[in-house]
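Q: I have 662 residues here and want to know how they pack in 3D. Can you give me a structure?
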Amino acid sequence: MSNVKPLLLARDEEETASTAECRVLLGEDDIVDCRQVKLLLAKFTDGVRFHVDSAGTLREAGRCLSNNHYDVVLLDLGLPDSSGLDTIQEAHEMSPAVPIIVLTGLDDEDVGVQAIRRGAEDYLVKGPSLEHALVRTMRHAIERRRIQETLQFKNILLSTQQEVSPDGILVVDEKGAILSFNHRFIALWGILPEAIGAQSDELALQLVLDKLVDPQEFLCKVRFLHEHPSETSQDEIVLRDGRTFDRYSAPMHGPDSRYYGRIWYFRDITERKVAEDKVRQAAEEWQHTFDAIADFIFIMDEESRIVKANKAFMQVIGPKVPDFLGRKCYEVMHRLGSRWPGCTFLHSLEDKVSEVSEVDDSVIGVPLLVTTSPIYDDKGKVTGVVHLAKDISQMKKAHREMKEAIEMKSQFISVASHELRTPLTAIKESIEIVNEAAADKLDAEMKGFLDLAKRNIDRLSRLINDILDLQKLEAGKVELHMQELDINEVVKEVRASMAPLAERKNLQLSLSLIDHPPRLRFDKDKITQVLVNLVNNAVKFTETGSITIAARREGDAVVVTVADTGPGIKKEDLPKLFQKFQQLESPSRRKTGGTGLGLAICKQIVEKHTGKIWVDSEVGVGTRFSFLLPAEPVKVSDGKKNTVVDDEPDVLTVTVTMKGGQ
């Protein structure tokens, strides 16, 4: 039985050795007629074997159709439980997909026509001619039904495709009559189905035109395509509500090249257009920014080819090398046939890090500070390098001029200070000699004048010393004598030396020390100078109350604080405190005596110890100056030469010189 195939599977194949099987349901209550049909079908051996089931009533035929698959139904119109043309309709309702052939003894052409209208595929009359017509009619009926099913499936497929499409679809025939449309078309255009149910495109066209910014252009396009049926068209149309549609139209041609009509597709691309506009705007903004940068910027691919450059680069290089895009960087910039020896391109490409170097190539003509940075794709692969070159000729010139100015300033301060110190020393000594030699001859007023002169000479000497100290600190010429010391001892010494000054103003000078102080390495004289300056300022500005010198641990560091109960400092004045030549006014609105350099010197000394200094103050409450000393100072240079001298016998004098100070 393996060579037997169902008829519906075998009909599209070339039948050679195999035989197709056709299942037939015979609705016949006459035993003789039933036997005759079975014999006729059994005699047929031309590639088809018929399997016949018989049913004597319509009800029995219904059960067979429910439980089995049949390729065709042979139906008599005179069954015990059904007769006439209604039998066809009832049988068709039982199994609409199975073709029905009426097999009756009534030779009436009108009945045959009505039977076909009721759903029968054909109408055969019992008799001698049945032998030749039966099998042929059955095959034709089955084939017609198969074709109908195929067409039905294709129609369903086409309809489904139209309905699930994101596009609005409209199909018209060669005369412009509407053949079909999908719901998306209605939704896009806001047209009611009834408006195009008349199958004419005129009303639909007018409704569409009413929604367009440029209806005349749309109408011209429709007319052009109507006059040129073989043309396709794709463009964009703008609606009055701000939306943008992509419009596509194509002709429908049959196998014989006959024109059957036209199909229109409409897709809402508003969001895409907005996104495209944003991308274009971002690209334009990026390009404007790219071109606004005064530095020379260009982008290279993995092979060192220049693929993009900004305006500054093009203005300088373009006139010299007009065709620089696509060429190797070293060809354009250095006029070389191979990579420039100092190029950082490979480092950025291979190490995937930014590289900075100074390039001074005579071919370029100006010194450049070059930064190369890798460009990554979405997968983290380096696809190129951004090359940024900054002309530093003016910066280098300014650096040289600044260095010369600093040296001139240093020399001037040294010479001026020396020239001032010499006469001041002579004047001071002369005043002391006069004061001692003629003490008994001077009245109180004259002694007052001499004391006033001596105080001003001392003040001028302090100013000169402060200027020299600050200049040396800023120039990096101060030697720090680092020792391992106890900060408590330094605090106590300062308190002892400053106590008389505080007692003259009836101020309490108290201490708060660390129980187990760490051994710190610092320059005792310089830190003492800082503490003395802070305590002196506290005494100077505090009229009543107390001053506290406190030391505390903060991790591995030590924080020393000088707190007073003075008038406090206004918030807007705090940033000025550590600036040079800044003196704040006391509550009495007069400036206190001083050079205005003390806190600036304190800041320099603390920072030379790699520490930091700061202030907290509240008007009417008091002020707290604090500085932090790390447990192990880090040797950091400001680009100048700093000498650190260690008093320990086993530690050598170390000179640290930064590259930038060469």
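Q: Anything worth noting?
A: Residues 393-437 form the longest helix (45 residues). Confidence is low (pLDDT under 50) at residues 1-17, 587-592, 636-662.
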